[in-house]
Amino acid sequence: MSLPDLARAAGRAVLPSRGRLATAWALATSLALGALAGAPGISRDEAAVLAAGAADAARPATPLAPALAGVAGAAGTRAGLSPVRAARLGTAAAGALLSALLALAAWELSGGAAALLAPALFWLAPRHLHAGLVATPDLALAALALAAALAWRRALRTRGRAAMVRGAAIAGLLVGAAVLARADAWIVLAALAVHGLGAAALARRSRDEDDASPAAERDAGEPPPAAVPGVRRAAAALVAAALAAAVVAVAGWPGGLVAGAAAWLPARGEAPLRAALVPLLAIPVSLLWAYAGGAVHGVIRIVRAARRRPPGVAASDDLLLLCGAFAFLAAAAISGAPAGARPWLPAVPFLALLGARTLVAASVAAWPRRATAVVSSVALLVLYPGLRATAVAFPLGTSAWNELAGGAPGAASAGLPRQDGGDAVARLLPALNERARAGARVWWPGVSPSALAAYARGGRLRADLASASAPEEADLAVVALDGGSRDAEYRAWAALRTARPAAGVYRDEVPLALVYARPGAWR
After folding, report:
1. Of 67, 58, 264, which Cα lies nearest the Cα of 180?
2. What gap in Å lies between CA 520 and CA 523, rounded to an integer?
3. Would you call the peptide bond into 449 cis, given omega within 30 degrees of 0 as the criterion?
4. Whole-number Å distance between alpha carbons of 9 and 519
5. Distance of CA 378 to the CA centre of its chain
6. What is the pTM of this model?
7. Which sign does the torsion angle of CA 389, 390, 392, 398 carry?
8. Class of residue 523 by CB neighbours under 10 A (exposed 0-12, middle 13-18, buried 19+)
9. Spatial CA neighbour of 468 closest among 441, 428, 503
10. Among 90, 45, 111, which Cα is nearest to 450's?
């Protein structure tokens, strides 16, 4: 029995069916995200989405994130939820879809144990969980990119040109929906193109060598080749996908083509190398090892297929996962990430699938008779550090940095962002409501006015507190520190005649947000 067969057998011995497991993951994800959605603060990016969603609640429109926020917000507030928590339920739905897709894909690739592992390898990271708790487009993009890749995989394995083209068009529709979530999702088409042509080349090489080899010399353990099309059929599928994606994107967002072309211009984003290296410092190291091991294992399988060793054309799956994983990271490394984007997040589901399959395969190879126990032990070693980091960081997931960065102190010393667009300020609101004098004027550098309006609508900010446009006009200054210029803090010191904060939010003694007060303004 081959290693994949052993892995599937181990999963079937202790797990329910594929559909039940995927449903359980989706339900658990939606409940967890819905329960935790009220805790994180509101960043500038999310504030813009919430403002657009509130304006469009009566007529859902694109891009996708404001539409989801508007629809979810309207439905949730009627059910008695706070406006912000209700708007974030759209992201919870995207998270449930992502968990189900990860479980289904992992089961098909490696069996039940991998299906149990793959969603956990995605969610047990502080920033990944945080992305599921806020109304930004990153998680919806991750779910739709994975859905498009899986639809593309199914299309290429369909026999018959017409059926394949229809399947590819479905994948294109999902790419178009991903573009409505975030303009740079056009990169998914490039990943599908590389995979389609690469898989066709691998299949052609395998077929040529099969024809030249006696049947007795072929590997008896080799699974039969999948229905992978030739180069011409792959090109036809890609054209169908691209046309379908363009139709959806243009119909839903007429400016999407221009926005997508401009999304990766260097002037819009961070320095390329910095944008590409951020995930190495933000994701827990144990998960990085699992992702890296999965990627290396996938490359090895592709090389072996190119040399006509087992697993042969089954390496098409490895190629698809690697293309999906590295498309966004490669684009970020070349031209820098779009402003406000988290470029690595759409890559992580593909890395989680690779990592889950590799962990299961390694466990089965190490001790076939005790595969379940070995997989459980390895999963604990890999997942526990991420679970602990996620629990410690919550709800300030965007302030979490891993051991390679030296944690929050090391990241602050390196000038890395301490938070995401002022979201840490939310932890100061209870103290501000309790201790600010009546009618105090507050200066909010680094915090979006739309975020303040959302806090007020949800009852998290006292209605009598007025906003000041400059520190000279303010009684209090709530300064969000982002790791860059400290000009706002210096201005608060000079205007309020104090350098001593009245209150603050800290991560490992690193200040994230501070309150400065005039004498008598803080009770």
Report:
1. 67
2. 7
3. no
4. 70
5. 24
6. 0.89
7. positive
8. exposed
9. 441
10. 45
**Residue type present at position 97:** L
Inter-residue contact 452 to 468 (CB < 8 Å): no
For each of the chain's 523 residues, which pLDDT tens digit applies? Answer: 455 555 555 444 445 688 899 999 999 999 999 999 999 999 988 998 888 877 654 444 467 888 888 889 888 888 888 899 999 999 999 999 999 999 999 999 888 899 999 999 999 999 999 999 999 999 999 999 999 999 999 998 888 888 899 999 999 999 999 988 888 788 899 999 999 888 887 776 655 554 444 443 444 344 444 455 677 888 889 999 999 998 988 888 776 666 655 555 554 445 555 666 788 889 999 999 999 999 999 999 888 887 765 545 568 899 999 999 998 888 767 655 544 456 788 999 999 999 999 999 999 888 888 888 999 999 999 999 999 999 999 999 999 999 999 999 998 888 888 888 889 999 999 999 999 999 999 999 989 999 999 999 888 999 999 999 999 999 999 999 987 778 999 999 999 999 999 999 999 999 999 999 999 899 8
Q: Are strands 466-468 and 476-480 parallel, antiparallel or unpaired?
A: unpaired
Taking CA atoms, 427 is separated from 40, 44, 279, in Å, by: 9, 16, 25
Gap between the Cα atoms of 81 and 92, Å rounded: 14
Cα torsion 234, 236, 238, 240: sign: negative
**Distance (Å, whole) CA 311 – CA 304:** 7
Amino acid at 459: G
Our separate counts of H helices and E strands in the chain read 22, 5
Sign of the Cα torsion 463, 469, 471, 472 reads negative
Who's near 147: CB < 8 A, 6+ residues apart?
97, 101, 174
Q: Report how far apart the first and last C-alpha atoms of the chain are (Å, whole number).
A: 73
CA atoms within 13 A on the CB side of 65: 25
Token readout for 6 is: 């052993």
CB burial readout 301-316, b (16+ within 10 A) else e: bbeebeebeebbbbbb
Whether 215 contacts 222, CB under 8 Å? no
